Amino acid sequence: MSDTSDVVLIGAGIMSSTLGVLLKELEPNLNIAMFEALQDCAQESSEAWNNAGTGHAANCEMNYTPERPDGSVDISKALEVNVEFDLSRQLWSYLVRRGAIKDPRSFLHPVPHMSFVRGPENVAFLKKRFAAMAAHHCYHGMEYSEDHRTIEQWAPLIMEGRSPDEQVAATRIITGTDVDYGSLTHHLVNHLVGLSGFTVQYRHRVTNLVRDTTGRWRVDVEDMSTGEVRSVTAKFVFIGAGGGALPLLQKSGIPEGRGYGGFPVSGIWLRCDDPAISGRHHAKVYGKAAVGSPPMSVPHLDARIIGGQHSLLFGPYAGFSSKFLKHGSLLDLFESIETSNVIPLLSVARDNFPLTEYLIGQLMLTPHQRFRTLQEYYPNAKQDGWQLQVAGQRVQIIKPDQQHGGLLEFGTELVAAEDRSIVGLLGASPGASTAAFIAIGVLQKCFPQELTASGWLPKLKEIIPSYGVSLIDDAEMTKRVRAETAQVLKIENV
Ligand SMILES: Cc1cc2nc3c(=O)[nH]c(=O)nc-3n(C[C@H](O)[C@H](O)[C@H](O)COP(=O)(O)OP(=O)(O)OC[C@H]3O[C@@H](n4cnc5c(N)ncnc54)[C@H](O)[C@@H]3O)c2cc1C
Fold it and tell me: What angle do CA 381, 385, 391 make, to 5 degrees?
């Protein structure tokens, strides 16, 4: 292991690997060292079954389209998420064209995205939501129906066994995707390993980060096989450690990280691999979260295609575990408490009672009650053939807030040092789908001097042709980028 590097990437999930790929494309001479505590890449949240694999384009997730007090539907957040996914599509297309990813079908499949609601109030909401979305070019091709037979054609399992009198509605967009982020991460890391100047060390845990007198970072790394601790110095460090990012940000001691805390939420899926059932459901069907429950609790019945096998996933059922990573320690939450984040943590505990209630409710569910929730979406579901699958951990961000003491956030945030030498990624939603957007955010925050017309900009525009253009405003560009990426990635275009 070299003891100096230009860049250290902590963690071998989708975020570090995406940033690594972008950096090497923009500056092939960079020396990059990646350290991963586990025995391979993509073993935590980025692993296929640890997440839902939705290519989040805010097509079907109703939590991104809140109702305003005047009854109209606000689609501004959905539009942001929608075009962030376009950045990932462009990066992946570039990598396919470049030969870095041989076959897009090894990680990406066309799977229609649907929203599905029951009852007059929810139907009225979905109708208004559809009207607002379908009027925008980003949602061109979205369909709406209240007709049982039409919805049954779109997704038979959710309609069979349902009373013909039940009022239901659904939207569908056939350009949706299912993504195996684990497979994608493997592609990215394998590609990086083939480039000179890139190394990845598995079973190597970063234990400390110290800024030296020259402004470089000393990264202490423990070889978990021998217990030996070595140090690497780097000009730039990306803390892409998923749930492990908060403790490392705290160790770095940068003032920008002060006051942040984390609230871990664990998840469970119901999974069915029976081809007689999974072969009849080819959609991701998102419902509406119960009142008071957090956005990540939205129930969905998803087609998954992992390693060539078609399966069904339903959930998530939330739980509480004090671990920040699935392979983490039960002490993670307690060890993250420091004087600077006590007030934010206590304020969030005080102000988010509905979340506590929701989590307790989820923990108390019996297997029978859990199955009843599935039957709300798939009325004829039989217990046989369904098994529990433990999902990844999500660490929600708790950040200091002058007015409330602390706020609980369900998004992601890049926390960078003022001198741009280190940045950590906190939070988990919309997640892996927006890895390219997040990596570009790192470039903009930390490499503004390189991101110029005489520097990295021309290459970045070759990789991401829409870079610098708002796809929310530019209908022509959106149409072009979507048509081109759909063709390369073998997904649907409308
Ligand atoms: C239940 C659930 C459902 C989700 N559904 C979706 C979805 O449908 N669509 C979507 O886009 N996103 C989804 N996400 C979010 C998505 O999975 C994450 O945003 C994404 O995988 C995070 O990638 P990452 O690289 O930051 O983290 P990870 O994949 O967790 O990788 C971080 C890596 O860092 C390593 N690490 C940690 N600490 C250290 C250390 N000290 N030293 C060395 N290595 C370390 C870990 O071992 C791990 O391998 C979901 C997440 C969950 C939990």
Answer: 95
